[in-house]
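Hypothesis: this fold can be encoded by more than one sequence.
Test: take the structure tokens below, design a sequence, compare later.
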């Protein structure tokens, strides 16, 4: 239904490139980041979610948009840098239902709630059950209202949750009703390590394996043991089909901060920092 990935002219790096034509870093960021297909993240900042999603997907022409739903209550419970989310489970159900309705019959890729099924160690059993039910509801809404959307539930990364454990969480959250799952979102593990992990998760899923996608936005130099704006990382493979997965995608926006930490102690999570972006081009 599409002929290539959508390049978002309103991404944070694209807006920065337009606004800073005289900056010495502009050419490198334009050539290597803002001109590439990158996912658009949606959350509480997006306003009316149905119209925001519909407007975005409706403006991509024949290209395939990649969207991220990031509004689960208690978001980033353990990491803390990206906290927030909908105010209650009922509010979340209304939000994600409207998200799916905003896509409708148009083709899209959606990564559902990064970290949500991996970030359990700061939650009690009741909170875990509540969150799992919200993700399962999301899968039902996309299946019913967005039939041409390929939905991938987030499955953490190669060194976070054992593959068998993650497979059980995905199964409980309804992965059988969607296209598959995503790994390495906003992280740095190599594509090879991510493929190995994702294949193990897929192989452990009850009822048969599922396709997966990998976030390659910042994994060009692999993982150095840090997750929050580490130095020495590099852009990875630009969005493509195949590559060991169903798709390799730039899910995290290169240059967007992970939080007030690492190389960007003064930059809030999700805010674009041109130096972070520039450093990813050259592996600094």
């Amino acid at each position: 239904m599409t002929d290539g990935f959508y390049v978002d002219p309103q991404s944070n790096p694209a807006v920065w490139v337009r606004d800073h034509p005289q900056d010495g870093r502009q050419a490198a960021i334009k050539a290597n980041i803002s001109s590439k297909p990158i996912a658009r993240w949606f959350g509480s900042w997006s306003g009316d979610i149905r119209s925001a999603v519909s407007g975005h997907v409706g403006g991509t022409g024949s290209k395939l948009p990649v969207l991220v739903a990031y509004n689960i209550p208690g978001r980033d419970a353990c990491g803390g840098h990206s906290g927030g989310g909908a105010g209650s489970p009922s509010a979340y159900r209304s939000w994600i239902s409207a998200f799916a309705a905003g896509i409708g019959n148009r083709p899209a890729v959606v990564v559902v709630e990064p970290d949500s099924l991996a970030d359990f160690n700061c939650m009690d059993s009741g909170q875990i059950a509540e969150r799992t039910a919200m993700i399962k509801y999301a899968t039902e809404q996309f299946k019913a209202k967005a039939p041409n959307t390929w939905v991938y539930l987030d499955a953490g990364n190669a060194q976070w949750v054992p593959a068998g454990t993650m497979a059980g969480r995905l199964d409980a959250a309804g992965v059988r009703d969607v296209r598959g799952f995503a790994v390495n979102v906003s992280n740095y593990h190599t594509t090879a390590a991510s493929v190995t992990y994702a294949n193990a998760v897929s192989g452990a899923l009850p009822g048969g394996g599922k396709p997966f996608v990998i976030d390659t936005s910042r994994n060009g130099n692999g993982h150095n043991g840090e997750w929050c704006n580490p130095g020495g990382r590099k852009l990875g493979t630009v969005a493509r089909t195949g590559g060991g997965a169903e798709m390799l995608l730039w899910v995290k926006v290169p240059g967007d901060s992970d939080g007030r930490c690492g190389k960007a102690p003064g930059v809030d999570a999700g805010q674009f920092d041109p130096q972070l972006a520039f450093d990813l081009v050259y592996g600094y």
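Strands lie at 40-42, 66-69, 108-112, 149-154, 180-183, 212-215, 240-241, 247-249. Residues 12-282 form a domain with the TIM Barrel fold (CATH 3.20.20.40).
Hypothesis status: open.
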